[in-house]
Every structure is written in structure tokens, then in C-alpha cells.
């Protein structure tokens, strides 16, 4: 057995990397063989092409990212060098209906953690998927730096799992891909999707400097597993495959009633037909984890081959230089809107085409109440930092928010964050600890008896501005708001009762885009020129015309106007 790794991973450990990785991997494989028995070979394959589509260039980029992390742990001798996978997606991706630690993201993290530690890396799986019909764009795509962090080291892999919610609106996926490609971290983008329409929209980014992977359907993994619906024997199966396949399909028919394991809590929300159960999450998680370990093996081989002719410092310089070339390729690339679809009620293809130059590469600044988010946890939004899964500033409930507004007279009131998560979270201690973590929180606006009172907000606030304002920050911008529950057909009545001013200028038109809306001063005035010393910062005031009406704004987004030859 190799000697234990020290708390810092120095260059003297380099020659034992392969030995340590082999020992940790064999220990894991032995456990998997014992658990899965005869089904081990079809689930855990050395040739991963049955479960993943990935070009050689994208593979090289992911292996290089892992090599860079290994080199950093050798050279910098940090206490912790982290490889981060961020999951984005809908409620099923978030794990709703299951314990939070049963999600495929957590399963993957748990599976690979000891193997990554063996070579000096910490694997962090961040499940930032959200429920309530969340689509991949425009809100999630344009708020990536707020939600996932603005730094160059915030994430190494960013995954997409919005098949149910994006549906036929493939232009949303195209925007998500472009914004993911443009994130300062330049992560590898992983699609968990079976659509032949969406994947090409992301796959094309490989030619522009981005690593892209498609995680395919897992049918080959459960092929031949005894069918519960057909009365086939389940007793010799591992628990995670028992009562899993019915009529050849996972978690369908009679299996649908066997897919939950939340007995640790008496009551649990989200157990509906369209949410995957823990067995599906577990299978997805171990397949993803095994794939990541195979990539880690290749990165160790790559690192050691480079160390044969260079020292660790030079190796780090080499891989950084290659990353920078890919970054330059993306920055200098021209990207027309690919062929895609967007329902007219969500803005339509014409609006998407018109806005694309500003949307796909512009330096958007987002002030979002959504949770989880890096900006909420770091204290950028409210000034109070917190921890994911621990204590953080949750905001206030609706009754307290209404009372706060109604008790205000003759002065404006700031928009408080309204907690909009599962009602179980307030009242059930078990659910607080083990249930879903996401919450589609919002900045609260309600009618006030005193018609001189407005709910106000600086967008972005000064902390957000320091974090998100970059070289492409502009004075002239589009402004977009995303209102909670504002899906197709639900906004018309709401906006009749809402009055909005931007820098003391009235908004007269709201143009739908996805589940969000652009604010226009008039038919011919679509952009807003900021007046203060911080380009792109605005004062927004909202009130409702009736005292009993409320508005819940999830996000405000500032999008620089793209001007040719600038």
C-alpha cells in the first residue's frame, strides 16, 4: 500500500502518482465488482463511447484541464487544489423527490473523491440545478457569473440538464452554450441530453476553443437487467437495480412506485412522475464518475510524460499557454446564431436573431435572488455571506415582506429578498437537512397604501459591480427582468398593475424573451444610457397600482448593446 499523501502535494510525490492512482482505482473497482456482479462489465466500461460522445479535441482539453490541476498541486503546494463540476438543470436534475445526497452530482462526487485525493486533488460536485420550470436561458445563461462565480477557477465542468424545460425552444440551449463558453473559467461543457436538435448547437463550439461532451442515454447500462413488470426475479440484483426496469424502461409502470427512498424523513416533496428516483440518479452518477476517473488516468499519464522532459513549473506554463490559445480562439471567433427554434410567445426567432450579437458574448451583469448562487453565498447580493447546505441569508417570508411594505410611509423601501422555496423547508427539520437546496427566491414588490412609496433597487449594487464589471462594461445597455412564475400566459395581468421606472424614466413596454422581459422606454427606445459614474449601473423603482398586488422579480440583467466595430 502506498504511503499516505501529505496535506500539501509537493514535487517529490510526482513519481508516485501513478502508483497512488492505481491503488485507489483498484480499491474502488473491487467494490464496484462486488456490488454489481455480472452487470459490472456493461456499466463500467473501458470504452465509454456507449455513454459519451466526445471528439478528440474536446478530450484533449479535458485531460489538459486535469493535467493543469495536477501541475498546480505540484508547483503551488496549496492546501487544496479543487476540480469543480457544476450541474445546472431543472428540478429532476436538482434531485427533487429524493434526498439531496442521492442526486447524480453527489453520487459522482462521493464515488470519485478518494481517487482524486490519491493524486492530490479535491473533487467538488456542485448541484446548482433549480426547480419551478427553470430553463437554460435567458436567466440562467446570462446570470452565470452571479450563480456560479465570476472567477477563472470557479468551475472546470459545466453541465446542462434542461431537456424537459427547454423542450422545442432550442435557441435557449444555443444561448446557454455560448454563455458557458464565454465564462472566465472556460469550462468543458457537458450536455446530458438525447435530442438530435440541441446537441449540434453546443457541439459546434469545439471548433471555437471549447471542450464539449454529450452524456448519452444509459440504455446499454441496464440492458438485460431483470424486468420487474414482467415478474422476473429481483432478489439477486444490487439494491440500485432492483425494481428499476419495467417493460424495458427505467422507473416506468410498476417501477414508478418503487423509485423513492426517503424514509429518513416522514414527509417529502417533489415525488412526482417526471422526477427521476434515486436509482436513476445513482446509475447516472456512477457512470459519470467512472468516466471522470478514466480522464484522470489519462491526465496522470500526460503529466508524467511531460515531466520526463520538463520540470513541474514548465509543465504548468505549457498547459496554461495552451488554455490561453483556446481562450483567444473563442474571443476572436465569429459566431452567428445557429439554426434553432424559439416560440413566438417567448420572443421568437426574429428577436433572438436581432439580440444575438449582444447576448452571446456581451459582459452581462446580473443581480439575482435565485439560490443556490455564488453571489448569495459570498455575500455579494445581501452583504451577508453563508455556506451551501448551512446557514445563509434566506430572506424573509411573504407575510413579513407584505407587513414590511405596508408599514412604510412617505419614503421608498428597498426590495427585500423573499424566500420562495419549498414550504417544507420552513417547517420540517428533516427536510431542511436532507431535502432540496434550491429556492427560486425573488426581490419583493407589493402594493403600498401610500402611493408615494416605491420599491427601489440599485442594479447591480456596488458589491456586484465590483465583482462583475469588466473591460466590456458599457454605458448603453438593454435591461431585462425575470419575474417569478412569469411563464407563457401568466404575465399579462401582472404587468397591467406594475409601474417601473429606470433612472426616473418610465418603462412603457415589456418585450418577452423566454420567461423574462426586456424593459423599453418606448417603441423606439430599447436601450438605456446609464447616468452615474459607473457605466451600466441603474436605479430601478417599481410599484403596483393596487395595494393587494405583489410582484416577485427573480433577476435583473444588464446586457451591453453590441455595436459594430467597437
Account of the 3D structure:
- The strands form 4 sheets. Strands 9, 11, 12, 14, 17, 18, 19 and 21 form an 8-stranded antiparallel beta sheet that branches.
- The longest helix is centred in the middle third of the chain and has 30 residues, at 278-307.
- The chain is globular, with a radius of gyration of 25 Å.
- It has 566 residues and is α+β, with helices and mostly antiparallel strands.
- Helix 1 packs antiparallel against helix 5.
- A hairpin with a 2-residue loop joins strand 17 (509-513) and strand 18 (516-520).
- It has 20 helices and 21 strands.
CA(first)-CA(last) distance? 60 Å
> Largest sheet at a glance?
8 strands, antiparallel
Specify Rg, calculated over alpha carbons: 25 Å
Number of extended strands? 21
Question: How much helix, percentage-wise, in residues?
Answer: 25-40%
Molecular shape: globular
Mean pLDDT reading: 91
By helix and strand content, what is the structural category?
A: alpha+beta
Strand content: 15-25%
How many H/I helical runs? Answer: 20
- Poorly predicted runs are 3-12
Q: Any key phrases for this structure?
A:
566 residues, eight-stranded antiparallel β-sheet, 20 helices, 21 strands, globular, disordered N terminus
Amino acid at each position: 500500500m502506498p504511503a499516505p499523501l501529505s496535506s500539501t502535494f509537493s514535487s517529490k510525490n510526482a513519481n508516485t502518482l501513478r502508483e497512488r492512482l492505481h491503488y485507489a482505482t483498484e480499491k474502488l473497482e473491487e467494490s464496484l465488482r462486488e456490488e454489481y456482479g455480472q452487470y459490472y462489465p456493461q456499466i463500467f466500461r473501458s470504452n465509454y463511447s456507449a455513454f459519451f460522445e466526445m471528439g478528440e479535441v474536446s478530450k484533449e482539453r479535458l485531460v489538459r484541464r486535469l493535467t493543469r490541476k495536477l501541475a498546480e498541486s505540484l508547483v503551488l503546494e496549496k492546501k487544496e487544489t479543487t476540480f469543480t463540476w457544476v450541474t445546472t438543470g431543472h428540478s429532476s436534475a436538482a434531485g427533487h423527490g429524493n434526498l439531496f445526497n442521492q442526486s447524480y452530482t453527489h453520487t459522482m462526487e462521493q464515488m470519485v473523491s478518494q481517487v482524486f485525493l490519491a493524486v492530490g486533488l479535491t473533487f467538488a460536485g456542485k448541484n446548482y440545478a433549480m426547480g419551478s420550470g427553470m430553463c437554460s436561458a435567458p436567466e440562467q445563461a446570462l446570470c452565470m457569473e452571479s450563480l456560479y462565480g465570476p472567477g477563472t477557477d470557479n468551475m472546470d465542468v459545466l453541465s446542462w440538464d434542461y431537456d424537459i424545460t427547454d423542450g422545442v425552444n432550442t435557441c435557449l440551449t444555443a444561448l446557454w452554450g455560448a454563455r458557458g463558453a464565454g465564462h472566465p473559467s472556460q469550462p468543458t461543457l457537458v450536455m446530458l441530453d438525447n435530442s438530435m436538435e440541441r446537441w449540434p448547437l453546443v457541439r459546434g463550439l469545439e471548433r471555437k476553443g471549447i471542450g464539449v461532451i454529450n452524456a448519452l442515454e444509459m440504455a446499454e447500462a441496464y440492458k438485460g437487467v431483470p424486468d420487474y413488470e414482467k415478474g422476473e426475479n429481483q432478489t439477486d440484483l444490487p439494491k440500485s437495480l432492483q425494481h428499476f426496469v419495467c417493460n424495458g424502461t427505467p422507473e416506468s409502470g410498476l417501477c414508478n412506485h418503487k423509485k423513492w427512498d426517503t424514509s429518513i424523513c416522514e414527509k417529502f416533496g417533489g415525488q412526482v412522475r417526471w422526477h427521476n428516483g434515486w436509482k436513476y440518479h445513482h446509475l447516472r452518477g456512477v457512470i459519470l464518475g467512472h468516466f471522470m476517473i478514466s480522464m484522470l488516468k489519462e491526465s496522470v499519464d500526460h503529466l508524467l510524460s511531460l515531466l520526463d522532459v520538463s520540470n513541474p513549473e514548465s509543465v504548468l506554463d505549457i498547459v496554461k499557454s495552451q488554455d490561453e490559445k483556446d481562450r483567444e480562439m473563442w474571443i476572436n471567433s465569429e459566431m452567428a446564431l445557429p439554426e434553432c427554434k424559439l416560440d413566438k410567445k417567448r420572443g421568437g426567432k426574429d428577436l433572438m436573431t436581432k439580440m444575438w450579437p449582444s447576448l452571446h458574448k456581451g459582459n452581462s451583469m446580473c443581480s439575482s435572488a435565485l439560490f443556490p448562487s455564488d453571489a448569495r453565498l459570498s455575500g455579494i447580493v445581501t452583504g451577508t455571506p453563508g455556506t451551501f447546505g448551512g446557514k445563509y441569508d434566506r430572506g424573509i417570508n411573504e407575510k413579513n415582506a407584505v407587513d414590511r411594505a405596508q408599514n412604510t410611509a412617505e419614503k421608498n423601501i428597498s426590495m427585500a429578498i423573499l424566500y420562495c422555496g419549498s414550504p417544507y423547508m420552513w417547517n420540517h427539520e428533516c427536510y431542511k437537512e436532507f431535502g432540496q437546496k434550491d429556492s427560486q427566491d425573488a426581490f419583493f414588490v407589493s402594493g403600498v397604501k401610500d402611493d408615494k412609496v416605491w420599491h427601489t433597487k440599485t442594479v447591480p449594487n456596488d458589491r456586484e459591480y465590483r465583482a462583475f464589471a469588466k473591460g466590456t462594461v458599457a454605458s448603453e445597455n438593454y435591461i431585462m427582468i425575470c419575474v417569478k412564475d412569469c411563464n407563457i400566459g401568466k404575465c399579462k395581468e401582472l404587468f397591467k398593475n406594475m409601474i417601473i421606472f429606470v433612472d426616473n424614466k418610465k418603462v412603457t413596454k415589456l418585450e418577452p424573451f423566454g420567461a423574462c422581459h426586456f424593459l423599453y422606454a418606448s417603441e423606439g427606445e430599447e436601450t438605456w444610457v446609464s447616468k452615474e459614474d459607473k457605466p451600466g449601473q441603474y436605479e430601478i423603482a417599481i410599484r403596483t397600482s393596487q395595494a393587494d398586488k405583489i410582484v416577485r422579480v427573480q433577476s435583473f440583467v444588464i446586457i451591453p448593446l453590441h455595436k459594430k466595430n467597437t
